[in-house]
From TrEMBL:
Descriptive protein name: Proton myo-inositol cotransporter
Task of the protein: H(+)-myo-inositol cotransporter. Can also transport related stereoisomers.
Originating organism: Leptobrachium leishanense
Transmembrane segments: 78-96, 116-136, 148-167, 173-195, 207-225, 237-258, 324-346, 361-384, 396-417, 504-524, 545-563, 569-593
Domain Major facilitator superfamily (MFS) profile: 83-597
GO molecular function annotation: myo-inositol:proton symporter activity
Keywords for this protein: Cell membrane, Glycoprotein, Membrane, Phosphoprotein, Transmembrane, Transmembrane helix, Transport
Localization (cell): Cell membrane
Gene3D superfamilies given in the database record: MFS general substrate transporter like domains
Cellular compartments per GO CC: apical plasma membrane
Lineage: Eukaryota, Metazoa, Chordata, Craniata, Vertebrata
Encoding gene (name): SLC2A13
InterPro entries in the cross-refs: MFS_dom (IPR020846), MFS_sugar_transport-like (IPR005828), MFS_trans_sf (IPR036259), Myo-inositol_Transporter (IPR050814), Sugar/inositol_transpt (IPR003663), Sugar_transporter_CS (IPR005829)
Catalytic reaction annotation: myo-inositol(out) + H(+)(out) = myo-inositol(in) + H(+)(in)
Amino acid sequence: MSRKASDNVEYTLRSLSNLMGEKKRRKQEEGAGERSLIAPAESCSSLNSQGPPEGASASAGDLERAARRQFQQDVTPAFVYVVSAFSALGGFLFGYDTGVVSGAMLLLKREMQLSALWQELLVSSTVGAAALSALAGGVLNGALGRRACILLASLFFIAGAVLLAAARGKESLLGGRVVVGLGIGIASMTVPVYIAEAAPPHLRGRLVTINTLFITGGQFFAAVVDGAFSYLPRNGWRYMFGLSAVPAILQFFGFLFLPESPRWLIQKGQTQKARRVLSQIRGNQNIDEEYDSIKNSIDEEEKEAGGGGPVIYRMLVYPPTRRALLLGCGLQMFQQLAGINTVMYYSATILQMSGVNDDSLAIWLAAVTAFTNFSFTLVGVWLVEKLGRRKLTLGSLTGTTMALIVLALGFLLSAQVSPPVTFTPSDPSAQNSTCTKYSYCNGCMLDPNCGFCYKLNGSNVVESSCIPVDAETTERSAWGRCKNESTSKSEGSFWAYNYCPTSYAWTTLAGLILYLVFFAPGMGPMPWTVNSEIYPLWARSTGNACSSGVNWVFNVLISLTFLHTAQYLTYYGAFFLYAGFAAVGLVFIYGCLPETKGKKLEEIESLFENRLCTCGASDSDEGRYIEYIRVKGSNYHLSDNDASDVE
Ligand SMILES: O[C@H]1[C@H](O)[C@@H](O)[C@H](O)[C@@H](O)[C@H]1O
């Protein structure tokens, strides 16, 4: 029996019970209803496709059809969407605050004369703080609950926005960036968990993926805001940072009225409240079954993994959670190792390297890149419940690996046709410069102290030289023809910092777009989505804290080392390296990622009972499925094979 069929049977029964009332439902469970739940494959599929199973009365068939219709209309009350949208504002702020800094930095470095070290500090302090607070978020989530953590994160976002917008010097800017980072870390680990715990199984993947849609939406919005305020000569950065207070305030007030996660409430023994919340988010559906299922699995979990010691220790000594943790951290690590933030944070630079030599055009093209990331995440939202997590992630990473190879080849080709240095100016300071040692543009471009000054004769590069870059800005050379814009223009000279004029630029651009088209629907959202579902309740906060921490740590590592990696390995070397990481990730995911689509959170633990890296093989498809049935208040674990035994 396909799992889809079993889901439908389950929902049909649930809806039937709504239609017939509680009393009739009990009768139904004792009779035909109970039997159809544990019925073997054929009867379930016939129930779904052709109407009533053999021997059932016509009126039961009518009822069933009515129930199915009702289920389709009512199964997802709008409230779940409201809850998800307010939580996903945390994702929006995560994307906005990590994205907005690149444009703000362009203005800040001029206005506050920021050194390279201070620029790096302002960018990476946020990501570093996010790594720490994501780890701490595990303890906070367990102790205070999901709702309190989301409220706390929005307070950090508000405080950070105010501090940044009102900053008087670089020290207060640094303080603001750290506070914002604390918010990002807590939100990044709490929001997916909260949404997963509130969502019904058949929509869980889609709703959690919407959080990543909000992340990439935030990044896109930040890119547009950066573009718009970049024309403001003074204080543009204050608006860029300050604007994030608006969604943060909205989220804070929204969450004052939104409920705590029912699963967390049950775990804390607040069962009455949990029932109320569950009824609220499930609308007119009967919640007994779901409530019992959560309650039983919590009781089970406590028995199974009830040994003493900190949660992380218990997770590591208990094989299913150890495997889930390895998978969760591995997914997050490979997401970052595939180089997404090199592409996101340096897209303007990469675009310049592919030949766009106008600064504001590069900023707007970076917004186009962010838009590609956002719109293809939307494709992921649509695909996640159709293809499932496993196929989507594997397909996405395969395409990403290929796109990285295209990007690398683009850089390789550009390097091979890199124009030679044909003109050595006689400025006296040229004698002390290391830039004179390069005989091709490629070497010159990779040295952060030098740039390439050239003229064009038709499409041919002529009179080209490698000259030191100005100490204040990378937009001009320290001396010579490219020292100031007006002389450059009158003489027809161009200044290329960080790129070489080549006719293969389009390959790089194509690689960049291809990269996002493949990465965004799968590798972008799935690590967050899968992590929100693979841990049992007792380990969920800690598991998500660890894996989010891993995501942020690798985010810092990859984005901070990109320019150095490119210097040592060249650009094409760096992208071949990321392609290598992605290929290893592909093998890991192929072996280790089971399909979790449509399963109840309480069922997913059993996917990790096998040795790690066999789970993908055994549960990749619809072939094997696990069904829980409710017999006298307990959940029994039933496989296809032993279904007949029960009957
Ligand atoms: O899932 C998100 C998304 O893909 C973002 O674009 C990226 O910047 C983040 O690092 C990642 O975690």
